[in-house]
Design a protein that fits this description.
With 236 residues, the chain is mainly alpha-helical. It is built from 10 helices and 7 strands. The chain has helices at residues 9-17, 28-35, 39-47, 75-90, 95-108, 119-127, 139-153, 198-206, 211-218, 222-231, and strands at 49-53, 56-60, 156-158, 164-167, 180-182, 191-193, 196-197. It has a 3-stranded antiparallel sheet with strand order 5-6-7. A two-stranded antiparallel sheet has the order 1-2. A two-stranded antiparallel sheet has the order 3-4. A hairpin with an 8-residue loop joins β5 and β6 (191-193).
Amino acid sequence: MDRGKPKGAEPESRVLSLDPRDRPLYTLREAARYLGIPVATLRTWVRGRSYTTAQGARWSEPLITPPEEGHLLSFHNLVEANVLAALREVFGVSMAKIRRMVKYAMEHLGVARPLLLDLKAGLGDIFVRDPQGLLSLSRSGQLALEKILESYLARVHRDARGRPLRFHPPVADQIRSNRIVLDPQVAFGAPTVKSIRTRIIALRYDSGETPTSLAEDYGISVEDVKEAILFEGRAA
């Protein structure tokens, strides 16, 4: 027995060995706020839920799997939930159809995590053009869905291979903030503006400092400061 190993070192080591994008980072409440959706909705996508039909009780399986079977979500989970938000909350695609499309992509296209795909890298084939006819849409419906997906997926900045790198959350009436970013490589994935945590800016604003003085202190624009304050739920 290794008595010199700190308690809890092994689980911590497993977490650190994960890709930063797969590490547990966000609570359900935090992730829901960053996505602009209800916590209950995200909880259903992550944990599943029971529901009643004429034939009796049924169980809705989760579509998002947190890392290490824990309760914290990863950056990749955030990206997956963003796609579900576009499909479900905006366009009204039923969960049953989404499940069939995800299953089709996994079983017939060999895609392990379809909800992580870039629209141009295959997501469009599964959810928009729908080769198996799982989603019945008119041509105008296809164009509308593609436009919605594009606007939501624009929140995700990807590398040359289409892998998610950073997430730009919605702020007020903006579907995507150009200033605020969630990067699993910066500040443990917390929302930042120019690498400065938005929460720290908001706390200093709450203590009485002005946006102008904060901008001068951090070397950022007043607009950066105001958006960080607005994102954190304060009136700038």
